[in-house]
Amino acid sequence: MTAHLPILQVLIPLMAAPLCVVFRHRDIAWIIVLLVSLISFVISTMILDQVLTQGVISYFMGDWPAPWGIEFRIDAVNAYILLIVSAIGAVVAFYGRHSVTREVPRDLIYLFYTAFLLCLTGLLGMTATGDAFNLFVFLEISSLSTYAMISLGKDRRALTASYQYLIMGTLGATFYVIGLGLLYMMTGTLNIVDLHAKLLDMDGSIRTLQAALAFLTVGLSLKLALFPLHLWLPNAYTYAPSSVTAFLAATATKVAVYVMLRVFFTIFGVDIFEETGLAPVLMTLAIAGMFVASTVAIFQNDMKRLLAYSSVAQIGYIMLGISFLNVTGVSAGIVHLLNHAVMKCAAFLAMGCFMYRVGSVQIEDLHGIGKKMPWTMAAFVVAGLSLIGVPLTVGFISKWYLIQAAMEADMMPIALLILLSSLLAVVYVWRFIEVAYFKEPANPSLKIKEAPLSMLIPLWVMAGASIYFGVDTDMTLGVAQLAAEMLVGGAP
Amino acid sequence: MQYNEIINPGLYNYWIVIFLMMIGFYIVIARGNLVKKLVGLNIFQTSVFVLYISMGKVVGGTAPIFGEGFEVFSNPLPHVLILTAIVVGVATTALGLSLVVRIREAYGTIEEEDIHAQEEDF
Amino acid sequence: MSMELSIILAMAIPAVGAVLIALSGRIPNLRETITLLTAIALFLNVLNLLGPVLDGERPEVHLLDMFPGLAIAFKVEPLGMMFSLIASGLWILNSIYSIGYMRGNKEKHQTRFYICFAIAISATLGLAYSANLLTLFIFYEVLTFSTYPLVSHKGNETALKGARTYLGILVTTSVAFLFFAIAWTYSATGTLDFVDGGILGGKVEGPLMGLLLMLFIYGIGKAAVMPVHRWLPAAMVAPTPVSALLHAVAVVKSGVFSVVKVIVYTFGIDNLVTSGSADWLVYISGFTIIAASMVALRQDNLKRRLAYSTISQLSYVVLAAAILTPISAVGAALHIAAHAFGKITLFFAAGSIYTAAHKTEVSQLNGIGWKMPITMTAFAIGALSMIGLPPTAGFVSKWYIIQGAMSSENFVALSVVILSTLLNAGYFLPIIYAAFFRQAEPKGPDDHGGHHDHHGEAPLPIVIAITSTATLTILMFFFPDVALELAQQMIGGIQ
User: Containing domain of residue A479, as a range?
Assistant: First the structure.
């Protein structure tokens, strides 16, 4: 049984998805989703335990040995990503019951849950697989179900947002396949470890390789919304149902970042960057994203859109860390990947609570909400402080590491830029906090109650996590350090 | 892996790939009609199919079926991969088209400009 | 009780107090009782540490590693001991005062007020005991954010605007400069601990040392060295107890306390003397002292005048530290205490006048001394301490600063101190004169504020608090022993 955990991790949600369609009932579907996501979570913890005690797990699909068969290969890096994805899946599934009922047309809810399970399958599969083409298939599974989930939002703009995402997402995925094709041409293999071994002997100046890297980078940058390829993200996050937004913001872009890390460091290795000069380009885009997206966020009146732009900026931080190409930098990127997942999930879950009670997340509709929904708002404050990077929240940990990485790379001005851009976060977070606590509600007669407990608990789990991991950093930093050493050190 | 050495040296196919890729890409960017955009996307994806299939070709090779007298086979793996990619492409197109149907129901148009006129922030 | 426990309790007591206050929010009497009990418990707890510290012990607590090799850790050293004594002791008086003030003015959201206050005190204690720059920075930021709701308490546009300035300047400086400076220090030295003699000696080259010091000084915005002082007058929109304890004692003292700590334990005095990197600081702090005093002269709003006086007095501490002699460092430490007692008295008086007479401007105070004799007498004592005249605490600290300036033949510092003494007298004495020796102007018939003219003293809690702090101001002149001993132990560590 335990030997088959890697495939069960992916297979269970996949098999459960059609079940939802069979029953065609929203409550049953919800129970299935909840059960499956909990099982996934348990499996991912078992896998992690196995990886930490016994080392890398290699699982050969149908017992065809790699590199011919498809291999699921789980080491410390993706074991943790699996854990995050499944944990957030479970939290969001628990949260979703009320929120989804309010924000998705009733007769489509069971389909929504089907798509949710498929999306979970795709994301877990992308993370677990050790085969680059198989990764593409899982990528498309998760993307297609994401488009479907976004289009279920109540606003009609959800449709256009979903369409826009579909076009850009497919372009990104196709770019990825092109890059992979070029790699296959050079090496004749699709297995990630095998690719690494074959590329080790090759000269980084070969143009096909460089073209492959370029295609892969652009394609993945589209998926992870690196500025300026982020255009799909604000609309998609704004109009998707809130629990979808929370789930996507915490997982989808993060898994894409993970894939990017694999491509950069496991497949190509650090040396190719010197050959291509890609790192300065990434760094420039990351910094531009940090400033431009944060500045745009300041001027948003829709909170979900504001947070979406903030996500683009935060992805900039992650990519900046990676572009330093040193261990500290990459671990800063990875730790921020974990931390940002937690805090942004909390922030969007809070938005879901507002959506549930107020029916809107426009800032002017949320005046004085701090008094009406104190617990929800307090959780948002925690998430907001985290976005700013206040000490005792996870944001501070990431920022500290990023700065240290910049110092280590002898780039003092960049350290300063990181700090300055985080000041923009103060502005956009405070804009909301101020009116939420100190402005009188526009419509005082409206009776607004605190969000139901089934939404508050998941919200506070995430908010609590963004404090807990901001103080006790043994686990997150340990993982990031370990992962960065593996990646940068060139171990497959 | 001997096929690497005797792979078809002609670049003809690759020119077609690039040509299709650019056409598709251009349509996606330049066309305002949502269905035409999907057509462009399909052309774009097709170019990738051709890319993969071309690289599987081995000069003088036959279809990869064992039989008397055949020693050289084309590489079947890219073909299989592209079978998967085609399925994915079909699914994407289906989803895209269904979205277009629903957009038309909601907006009464499938022209990007008209939708834009109705919504400020698309 | 072990000292390690006492250190943790120093932060835990107010934090638990905050929770209890939140729970008892519905019953004001219980809530205020809890506040008072918390404050008393905290003070006793801090007092428990005093004896051992005076005996030369330096209790430490290693809480947890935030980053590998970088811990949240606490260590009680003399200066922190003194600071924590002042903050926790004055919290008791301030709580008594708050009860009178908040009720007397029928302020809203009193529960939030008491909660945030307790958290701010908790952060102050954490800052006072921090054993490294990381811990110091953490509590510095917690203090900033926990005081924001207190500054914006009133919730009207003026309060929000003031609070925005407050938060904006403090966060900008701390994130852009202080955080940067700390990260720089860490990458240069590999440690952030406060060590006798400093850690930066020989680690950073020539002019960069000066730059780093500048980052620290302006990063610690709470020290209000010009030109990052604007937040302090802006914070005066807060209710007076906040201005009194936080913006005359806890918050601003956290600023200068951090400056002294950084100069003594991070840079090291010897290092700064040999490298000459701190010379500019004498001029900047001297300029701040003079300029803020000049601005104070022209303020009619009483709290604003006091705020500018605070800016000026804070730079005394910075100046004293920047003179870089042991004796002036003693002066710096003493001035932290002396100014705390004096300035809280002055703010208490300003709040007392506001509560009883609803007057906020200096020009309205003619003849008020006879209606509110206790308040104005206390005000006079506070003012004398600010000027530095005996028999008040201000004289003691100024004496040491002047001694330090003379011993290092720093005539710039010396003339700044003398000139500013004159200026201080210039903006405080007229108030006292007007309060006691001028007749209240006869009111016109259309004056609607008339009903306030028949007021007496402020409510009893206010009078108790104000009398106590004024007494403390005088007592410190006659019995400066404990403060002096702590200050000398601090420089004992330096030499």
Answer: 289-492
Domain end point (choices C220, C245, C267): C267
ipTM for this model: 0.88
CB–CB of C272/C214 below 8 Å?
no
Look at chain A and report how many structural domains it folds into.
1
Rounded Cα gap, residues C188 and C203, in angstroms: 6
Q: Do C176 and A408 touch (CB under 8 A)?
A: no
CB nearest to A167's CB, from B41, B91, B102:
B41
On whether residue C273 sits in a domain, the answer given is no
- Give the pLDDT confidence of A32-82 residue by residue, as tens digits: 999 999 999 999 999 988 888 888 888 888 888 877 788 888 888 888 899
Count of pairs with CB atoms under 8 A, one residue in A, one in B: 82
* C305 part of a folded domain: yes
Whether the CB of B2 is below 8 Å from some CB of chain A: the reply is: no
> Are B121 and A188 a contacting pair at CB < 8 A?
no
What is the distance between the alpha carbons of residues B74 and A216, in angstroms, rounded to a whole number?
A: 26
C184 touches chain A (CB under 8 A): yes
For chain A, which chains pass the contact test of at least 3 CB pairs under 8 Å? B, C
What is the residue range of C191's domain? Answer: 1-267
Average pLDDT, chain A: 88
User: Domain-by-domain residue ranges, chain B?
Assistant: 2-118
What is the arithmetic mean of pLDDT over A295-303? 92
> Across the interface, do A163 and B103 touch by the CB < 8 Å criterion?
yes
Domain covering B2-118 assigned CATH 1.10.287.3510 in the classification: yes
- Asked if C1 has any chain A CB less than 8 Å from its own CB, the reply is no
What sign for the dihedral angle of Cα C217, C219, C221, C222? negative
Question: CB neighbours (10 Å) of residue C139?
Answer: 26
Same domain, C299 and C263: no
Our CA-based measurement puts residue B70 at a distance from the nearest CA of chain A, in whole angstroms, of 22
pLDDT along chain C (495 residues), means of 10: 82 89 85 88 88 83 82 87 89 86 80 88 91 91 89 85 89 90 88 83 80 89 86 85 82 89 85 82 90 89 88 89 84 88 89 85 83 87 88 88 86 88 88 83 50 68 87 87 82 56
- The pTM for the full model equals 0.90
Facing residues of C60 across strands? Answer: C75
C128 and C486 Cβ atoms separated by less than 8 Å: no
Identify the bridge partners of residue A129 per DSSP, sorted by sequence position: A72
Work out whether strand C70-75 and strand C60-67 pair parallel, antiparallel, or are unpaired.
antiparallel
Identify whether C465 is part of a domain.
Answer: yes
Minimal CA separation from A169 to chain C, in Å: 37
Q: Determine if residue C326 is left, alpha or beta; phi over 0 gives left, psi from -120 to 50 gives alpha, anything else beta.
A: alpha
Does any domain span residue C446? no
A154 and A105 in contact (C-beta within 8 Å)? yes
